[in-house]
Amino acid sequence: MFKIGCHLSISKGLTAAAKDIVKIKGNTFQYFSRNPQGFKAREWNQKDFDDFLSFSKEHNLYRPLVHAPYTLNCCSSKPEVRELAEKILKDDIERLENFDDALYNFHPGAHTGQGVEKGIELIAQTLNRIVNPNQKTTILLELMSGKGSDLGRTFEEIKKILDLLDYKEKYGVCLDTCHVFSAGYDIVNDLDGVLDEFDRIIGLDKLMAIHLNDSLMPFKSFKDRHAALGEGQIGLDAIVRIINHPKLRHLPFYLETPHDSLDGYEKEIEMLKSLYQD
Ligand code: FE
Ligand code: FE
Ligand code: ZN
After folding, report:
1. Which of 44, 86, 108, 191 has the most CB atoms at less than 10 Å from its CB?
2. Where are the domains of the chain?
3. Phi, psi (5° rounding) for residue 195?
4. Is residue 100 classed as helix, strand or coil in its secondary structure?
5. What per-residue confidence (pLDDT) applies to 40?
6. What's the pLDDT score for residue 36?
7. Collapsing DSSP states into helix, strand and coil, what is residue 156?
8. Burial of residue 9, with CB atoms counted within 10 A of its CB: 0-12 exposed, 13-18 middle, 19 or more buried
9. How far does residue 173's CA lie from ligand 3's centre (Å)?
10. Residues 114, 153: contact at Cβ < 8 Å?
11. pLDDT at position 104, please?
12. Which residues in the chain come in under a pLDDT of 50?
């Protein structure tokens, strides 16, 4: 089964978002755990959640990917920023235990001048204080473009974080096609080579989700600007090779392309489904 969906707002609730994704013929979606810029969480609505679970079952939806706010930074040089990040991660994960198998994605963080090693250490220490062996949620570290002091630009940095973590089975990696391309991994001309490198350094068994985006910015620009599929520097041919690659095609794909209505996603999903080889 081709698992394809897009990022959706859950301002009208989880069930409403699930209905939206079915309407545009996707079968999974991503949403923010809370306000992405601030940190305010929605109040938990048990009825909405129960409705969502039965609707998902009925429509055979794949588990959603829950994205942490991207302003969260557990390796900032400011202790109060780190403490807030830890509190939010903990709170989000506790809430996600309502799902039996949630996927929770977050940006590793920016070391804000402390250096890569220190940043990596702070991220791992934070996670190790939160995660427990009974947790059902899988935490995904997202590969980043590498702007500013953002960590997670290279496979090596992600691997170093993973190496420091307790309960390694609770973690995975999310590959954002825009991010890795702007970070300097040539998924356009050498997808096999990039995947071999991923496998050698991190291990492909750790790869659990793909953010499917074109990139407005050129290769190795270290800039994070998403483009609609086929309207950026990656191009549609490379995207088609990615969704059909034998090592990737079983993964869930989430569009984070810039569209201001569901229409844009609906068209992309329709196009991708027609280009996915059964
Ligand atoms: Fe992200
Ligand atoms: Fe992403
Ligand atoms: Zn991005």
Report:
1. 108
2. 4-275
3. -70, -35
4. coil
5. 87
6. 78
7. helix
8. exposed
9. 15
10. no
11. 98
12. none
CA-CA-CA-CA torsion sign (5, 98, 172, 13): positive
How close is the Cα of 188 to the center of ligand 1, in Å? Answer: 21
Measured in Å, residue 7 CA sits from the centre of ligand 2 at 10
**Which pLDDT tens digit goes with each residue over 65-100?**
999 999 999 999 999 999 999 999 999 999 999 998
For residue 143, the CA-to-ligand 1 centroid distance in Å is 8
CATH architecture of 4-275: Alpha-Beta Barrel (3.20)
The pTM score is 0.97
The answer to whether the CB of 176 falls within 8 A of the CB of 256 is yes
Of residues 211, 209, 213, the one with CA closest to residue 258: 213
What Rg, from alpha-carbon coordinates, does the chain have?
18
Bridge partner list, 263: none
**Distance in Å, CA 167 to ligand 1 centroid:** 23
Give residue 100's pLDDT: 87
d(CA 175, ligand 3 centre) in Å: 10
